[in-house]
Model the fold of this input.
Amino acid sequence: MKNLISLALISLLIFGCKSQEEAQIVDLERNDQVSIFDLVDSISVVKLETNDQCLIKNIDKIIPFENRLYIFDSRLNIVFCFDQDGKYLFKINKKGRGPDEYENATFVNIDRYNNLIMILVPWGYLHYYDLNGNFISKIELSKEIVAYNEVYAINKDTLLFISFNQLRASYYSISEKRILKRFLEVSQEQLYSIHPINKTYIYRDSLYYNDNSKECSVLNLSNENNPVVFKWSFGQYNNKQRQFRKIYYSQFDKKTKRRKSTISFEKLMGMLNNYPSTSIETEKFQCISMIFKSSEKFIFFNKHKKNYVIFKETVEGVRPFGHLNYENLAFHVCNDKNALFLTNILSDRQKNIVESHDSEKENPFLVIYNLK
Done:
């Protein structure tokens, strides 16, 4: 906790002025002509090795760490590890009820402060493995939180959990084995209309969260005071509280206050003016992807020039990032070697790598964007 408080004081000095900035106003109706090469420093291709030990069904998360790629497949409940060139190294496949096994893994991350793999079981267990996949320990978490959905290491002793609870975030002390603070509260009306998952990103070793419960603000969660460091505004297309109320009452019985139905993502999109999705920050850009009028748009705000571009895809046909992001890297999982955008962005050497890919028999290959 002392480390967290010290970090909070330092971050206040660094970000105190920035949190007072006015919101960056974005015209969501705009659609700019942008080249992917205006946004990236480099593009690389990694072909993942395929053998009987590493047959991937679906890639839910990619974590590049220490010259390795840790890949989580939630359908199989397996963590695969490849080197940076795509050579298969090992996997963590421990589904079961034994002392070193997990019943259902829903989220995987790397504790970069203690060099450990974290596998999260949503009903309150955290499993630790070393970076070579060897089991270390299992932690039973507080029952105070109904469901655990994401986990991040803030420092050597503090974890941050994100969940679908009304209090979205929680700090947890590893040494004290208890929750230190619960925060990021949403209203009852917003509970099922604002999605808290895939809203974080890492920049300069700090963890940030895109909070759209009141306005579209970026918070520094590595700072205990959670200061706002950036704000987005969409003018007439900002979401209104009455929209959240409408969504709430469409799902709940007014008398019993019990949830009587769920709402589809498509219907939810039709009831909101915008829906912020994934965020990234790099040395040059503050970025966000946004669902607007049933289409996804990407916004790149140039932090130096104080202007922005907004587009559905680049002129080459690239959609530059989604939920598979880590720091300044964005990953495109690709099975189709004939995808048109590949012809427009890859070098001849990279095309040769792609040409040898057999989508019927092999794992997908990765197109990796190193954002400026």
Summary: The longest helix spans residues 2-15. Residues 274 and 293 are 8 Å apart (CA to CA). The two ends are 34 Å apart (CA to CA).
